[in-house]
Design goal:
This protein is of the alpha+beta class and 355 residues long. It is built from eleven helices and 13 strands. It is 35% helix and 30% strand. The chain has a 13-stranded mixed beta sheet, sandwiched between helices. Helix 2 crosses helix 6 and helix 5 runs antiparallel to helix 6. It is globular, with a radius of gyration of 22 Å. It starts with 6 loop residues before the first strand and ends in an 8-residue tail after the last helix.
Length: 355
Amino acid sequence: MPDQSPTFEKYSAVNGHDKGPTEFLAENPVSPELATAMMKLAPANHFCTKSYAEAMRADGRQIWLLGSKRGEQLVAGCYGFIRSRPLYRVLLIQSVPDVACDDVFWDGLTRFCSGHQIHRLELNGLGWSGARIPPLPGKLERYEQYDEYVLDLGDPEWEQKLPRNHRRNIKRAMRAGVTLQRTTSPDACLEHVGLMAASRERRRKRGEAINGNRERELTYSILLVEKGAGELFQVVGGGKVLSSGLVLRAAEGAWFESSGHSPEGMKCGTAHFLWYSIIRQLREERKRVLNTGETEPHSGLSRFKAGFGARPVSAERATFYICSELRKRATDAARALRHFPSAILGRIGLGGRPF
């Protein structure tokens, strides 16, 4: 859906502090000045970058900047992404701002959802925002706490702290003569999602429940690199891409979006070499922090990340239905029909019939 004509919304309130009144802010289209101000508030968070917002716009979402403003100064902010369906509208916030539970932001967000007929509100604390999500009006469908593994890129002794197994695999890849390339080519995205699929298959064979949509992953990866939000780091050996990682970037930080590795690459240590090379190059570029994303504690992946120095940081996510129970049931039915049409139609006796 194309963006509406310029809209600026404010809800005045006093937060109970001595710093003066704070107003909720909702802007669409987002002015360059406001987008720049938000990136300065969270310089290590790629979810607050203009390039990430542009990738989401290209994916068909309406983009809003939501936040709190004191006078002419933005004091907290995030991007909100609205997707419209025939029976419902969803507002997604990937990285909720780190504001108090009684901040005017939450009341303003509730009013914004009501005014824009949002039926489903999805809130995430991605990007190490540190936010805590308060109770909000509507029905809480899901609430979870989880861990993101975050690496301090400024540790001067980082390389010396690498464990023996990580060092051994990095050296094995070097002896195999692999090289690292950086690219934003759409063809490289195709290689990337193919390696992601290979990694998923290995995990399924180990009994893990893994979901993935290759077509969707390809579209998303291409949008991220085309809009300048992300870059691919790929390990090449014998004329083939053996490992691939998609890294999203901000002024002072980065986010490890996804990775994949071929069976040949796993045998010669390219997964370790890929991570080692990415971290070294980000350190050389004076990035402060690398967020490697959500990871189950005590898993093999968490131990792998911890070996590179990443530490768990608690985050939250929640989903609210902010519509009537009747509308919620209609929305659930529409979503189920969209994602599982044959199963739903089969249950009501229409499976396999043209209509």
